[in-house]
Design goal:
Blueprint (H helix, E strand, L loop, with lengths): L1 H4 L7 E5 H7 L6 H16 L1 E8 L2 E8 L3 E6 L6 E7 L2 H9 L8
């Protein structure tokens, strides 16, 4: 919201260091921690939200994913996980751009 208030463009994809995410969320940074992080990305991508809205004499039923995709970037020499890139669905960004609250976040 701060970026939008300052007139900055908000992108659907964001990239961050896997290690930083593990540390920020108080997770282990061992090989097991990285495997659990990869599993979490799978679950996020596979989670579906169903919603319905009645408006103007019609009912709209929608199925959404929390994220469109997650990409893990590894260093090929030793297979160490470096970055994660998550792409959000356009439907998740629309409320931010319109400056409204999505009912699914209440």
């Amino acid at each position: 919201m701060a970026a939008l208030s300052e007139g900055c463009q908000v992108h659907r994809s964001l990239r961050f260091k896997a290690y930083d995410l593990l540390v920020a969320t108080n997770r282990q940074t061992s090989g097991r921690g990285y495997e659990l992080l990869k599993d979490a990305m799978r679950r996020l991508q596979g989670t579906q939200i169903e919603t319905n809205l009645r408006q103007g004499g019609k009912e709209y039923f929608k199925i959404l994913s929390l994220i469109d995709s997650a990409e893990i970037i590894r260093e090929t020499r030793d297979g160490r996980m470096l970055d994660i890139e998550i792409t959000l669905p356009t439907a998740r960004l629309r409320p931010l751009r319109l400056r409204t609250v999505n009912p699914s976040s209440r």
